[in-house]
Fold this protein.
Amino acid sequence: MQFREGYHDYSIVTGGLQVFPRLIAAEHHLDFEREPVTSGVPELDQLLGGGLDRGTTTLLIGPAGSGKSSVATQYVVEMAKLGERAAVFAFDETLGILTARAEALGLPLRQQIRSGAVSARQIDPAEISPGEFAWTVVKSVEAGCKLIVIDSLNGYLNAMPGEKYLNNQLHELTSYLNQQGVITILVMAQHGMVTALEAPVDLSYLCDTVVNMRYFEAAGQMRQSISVIKKRSGNHERSIREFTLAGGHGVRIGPPLKDFHGILTGAPQFGGARRDHAILWAGKMKAVAKLNRIGKPESPRIDGKASKPSAERTDERIFVIAPIGGDANAIATLLTNNGFQAFVCESRQPASSKSSAPGLW
């Protein structure tokens, strides 16, 4: 007689016992094409070397409130847009808070849950055993889910009798998901807020990709950063970028923070050259513009055709502080269409280095 060795969880239900056989990953293997899947945020895809690969496990780690769950939600929504099912297992938040936060970011998670493209389940760690949870995840995969989010491992740990048991269970679960070609995202909150951060357990060796999210102080403000520590399945960008959540516009990621060092300590030092007007990424979907007269257009237009500016000019410039290059380009186009001269510079030199005409820098 064949039987499965080891300990198996069970629950007492109406009519008898429900047994959850111990998961053995080696018994489950599926051929699939390992390819990256986009997040829908180009800058995040650049950090991840094209996106998260199918059949891999990603750990999002950082202090509370640093944006880990929002990044995971961004991937869930994008997978649903691509026509693939996703499942979210929320240990720490109610589904109401989860969907409300997503809506505030402009992510249609609630609609996708109603349509069946996304499965979201609130898990009470005091009411579910590790074996039952693994069985629930397996059923989701068998139903066609290609992305599994466990948010968070801190809550998952509370369902375990010990750290050693957690490692064994999670190893089998992630191995099973990887062999099924599923993208797995694990969320873990670190103890602390800015410095001296510690994780409750070290599970980085179980994960193929580790994304680190941190707070740091700069110019009297608390900011957030995101970086990729490792990616086993391919190359990734090694820079540290600023990260923010924009209401109605989801996850926003800025250019590499090349002018700072010591960001991961929480108290970075500015190492860039001083300049009269700093161009800073504000992290909001708006630009703060100070418009000085360059030469009043004869008749501003908004129909895509530029008006002919008058011959009279001054030497004053236009200064624009924009969150990302795309917004600066849009503002420059708007100004140009209304008869002004505008230039967008990627370097730290003013536009006068490109042209002698007054412009935007």
Observations:
- The first helix runs from residue 42 to 47.
- The chain has two domains: 9-270, 288-353.
- Residues 211 and 228 are 4 Å apart (CA to CA).
